[in-house]
Design brief:
With 466 residues, the protein is an alpha/beta fold. It contains 13 helices and 13 strands.
């Protein structure tokens, strides 16, 4: 490309300007399906095009059609933060362009990953019996955990002989578990019919340990082979959290593999006063926490902690001759810890974030988000025509708009869509006990108290217009 330096600088400056004006933009773009595609040529160019034109088309046609996940009034889903320090690290990673599959293909990346993940382990108060790596997403970490559950229950024969003529395995998870667990069960070949949902109880909407005991006993009596349990810490719908210590005790009783899905809320465990919410996680076999959610490291950056790396690599590692590091048998090759062979240099952004903001800076951010979310919850609770459906879990709660309508589900879906079309804030919906509820979570890295409280004005103003 002609004048690489010019365009690298231009792209960096565009990014700085973009982040500076985010509050002026609608969180979700006012576009219709197909509108962006209509602006893009239907066929690729035969001849090179001037980069000036390529960049101009990006600014004119692509950027305005993006949903702005770094917007400080993004209250939908969970955050997918890209803190400034992380963004700088990603610029460097992209410039280096390494494939970090083996120690020999990326010595510094491999050793930094080992150290940065251990920093997180310490920050979360986990024992040093855990080691870890960085997966792309929690979905991949959960799939890896389910594959280990499968192989461990089959005495590590499934990869070799297949699943025909093997016992039907059973995996247990809460009724609130994330859809990535369903997908892991599909992809592992265990089958959706063998994912057993544990009923929930209590204000945290956690799995009922007594129900789990009964389900396991029934399955054993029916000839099934229990293989593993997946516990939630801050599930996506409304932040449901399982009693991890009790589930861990049951898993130990039956020699089951316990995986803890703390993808979102696990980041909050850098705050010691919140660790009671995952008490017992220290007894898990594996844990996943997405540093790319609440901690500010850019996607993809999921910390996957494991107690026994040998079980993980025995399940996932393939070692053809061309992947051997000659003369060095004791090095760590993190491609053997996950599903993909190719890996990015993900540890640099985590290292940058932890150093640039420090644990205390990150704790302050998380504590603020929790405080502001709860303040908004109380303000809505005190407002006629609104009810709180689920109490605050971390920085997430859910609510409903109520009026004389007999179809409150449709009314609340209409409210969500009207709010999002307005563009000042962005929310999502869920179902709680079969009824539509509106989720509100605080987690964007540069969000302020004023941003959170502005949501009250938007929600009440638009609800009055319906």
């Amino acid at each position: 490309m002609e004048d690489f330096r010019k365009w690298v600088v231009r792209a960096a400056e565009w990014g700085v300007d973009y982040r500076a004006r985010l509050r002026e933009l609608p969180v979700r773009p006012p576009v219709q399906p197909g509108e962006i595609a209509a602006k893009i040529a239907p066929s690729p160019p035969e001849a090179p095009e001037p980069f000036e034109k390529v960049f101009a088309d990006f600014e004119r046609d692509i950027a305005p059609g993006m949903t702005h996940w770094q917007h400080p009034r993004f209250f939908a889903y969970f955050p997918s933060n890209s803190a400034p320090a992380s963004l700088i690290a990603e610029h460097l990673v992209n410039a280096i362009g390494a494939v970090c599959m083996l120690w020999q293909t990326s010595p510094a990346a491999t050793e930094l990953e080992t150290r940065a993940v251990d920093w997180l382990r310490q920050a979360f108060g986990l024992p040093d019996s855990f080691q870890g790596c960085i997966q792309d997403t929690a979905s991949t970490a959960t799939l890896a955990a389910v594959l280990v559950m499968r192989e461990r229950a089959l005495d590590f024969t499934g990869n070799q002989t297949g699943l025909s003529n093997t016992p039907r395995l059973r995996i247990y998870c809460s009724a609130e578990a994330h859809s990535s667990i369903d997908r892991a069960i599909w992809f592992s070949g265990i089958g959706a019919d063998n994912l057993v949902r544990i009923p929930i109880k209590g204000p945290l909407r956690g799995a009922d340990p007594d129900a789990l005991r009964s389900l396991i006993a029934e399955d054993i009596a029916a000839g099934f082979k229990p293989a593993g349990v997946i516990a939630n810490v801050g599930a996506t719908g409304v932040g449901a959290t399982d009693p991890v210590a009790e589930l861990a005790a049951i898993a130990r009783e039956h020699d089951l593999y316990l995986h803890v899905d703390a993808a979102w809320a696990g980041s909050a465990m850098i705050c010691p006063e919140l660790r009671h919410l995952w008490a017992g996680a220290e007894h898990a076999d594996s844990i996943v926490v997405n540093a790319h959610k609440w901690l500010g490291a850019q996607t993809h950056c999921s910390a996957h902690f494991v107690r026994d790396p040998a079980s993980l690599t025995r399940t996932l590692a393939a070692k053809p001759d061309y992947l051997h590091t000659l003369g060095l048998s004791e090095v760590v090759n993190y491609s053997e810890w996950g599903v993909p062979l190719g890996r990015q240099f993900r540890a640099l952004k985590l290292w940058f974030v932890l150093r640039a903001y420090g644990l205390e800076g990150l704790r302050t951010m998380i504590r603020n988000h929790i405080t502001w979310s709860r303040a908004l919850c109380e303000k809505l609770r005190a407002t006629p025509s609104f009810e709180i459906v689920t109490e605050p879990a971390y920085s997430l709660f859910s609510f409903r708009y109520i009026n004389a309508s007999t179809d409150l589900d449709t009314l609340n879906l209409q409210l969500v869509e009207t709010i999002n079309a307005d563009g000042r804030i962005y929310l999502t919906q869920t179902r709680v006990d079969g009824r539509v509820a509106i989720r509100f979570q605080v987690g964007q890295f540069e969000c302020t108290e004023a941003d959170v409280m502005s949501a009250y004005d938007v929600i009440t103003e638009i609800s009055e217009q319906l």
